[in-house]
Amino acid sequence: MESCSAGAAGTETGRILLLLDCRGIIMLVEDILSRDPLYIEESTFLTKARQMIRDNHVRGLPVVNSKGVVLGIVTNQDMLRVTSTKSNVTVSGYMVQVPTITGQMDILDAARLMLKEKKTLLPVVESNEKPVLKGVVSLLDVFKNLNLDNVPRKQVSEIMTTKVVTTCPDDPVTKIWDLMVEKDFTGLPVVKDGKPMGMITRFDMLKGSARISKESARKSADTMQMPVEKFMSSPLFSVKPEDSVATAIERMLKHDVGRISVVDGETLVGIVDRNDLIKSYLGE
User: CA 92 from chain center: how many Å?
Assistant: First the structure.
């Protein structure tokens, strides 16, 4: 049996830990985590947490106590469930408990755990014995650090979702808001006459006007009927069914998007998101 060895390398920003085993170089959470992340305490008002998520374009926030010990997280999905405009509601009732990890975990193991827990980020703590917040790691962090040389030689058609839930540009934004909450969607293609036009995402939904249309105390007819087209992201980036998984990863990294449409000519035939691509990379 071949022996495995460990090593370390330095950078200008500090020591990067690298572990070398029989499979090659493994990146650790320590290498890619976001240090000094935004966080909130359980007494923080929901309105402030939502504003922090929206303004900083983050997928979630760790929740800590007064000593910095991690209690859980709140996510952008949790914020979609908030329709109250009351300013005295705190995050304590919306916080969810999640596993914490340390910097010594393999990033692929961290990805497996996030996929299992259906969470897009996890808090990183100093140690299991000292669960004080050190940083956060997200599926996006892992995605950005995938080794493209190790991507399975598969076509997009082998991993894409073919039963795609779509929305129309003139659908009321409140209808899509409710659908995202009910089905836990992160984004939906906007399609007109069978042709994809754009994408509507959770972040788009949390923008001021979309939020106001959902939360408006008056709920006037005009406000409730604000169309998806006003909030969708465009242009819509796409790949072909015969494109490789590696091509889909590269294109999503290039355009900094979390999902990409699969088109045959001008017809939408599927969709792949970051989770699909990571699962394929992991062989799942």
Answer: 22
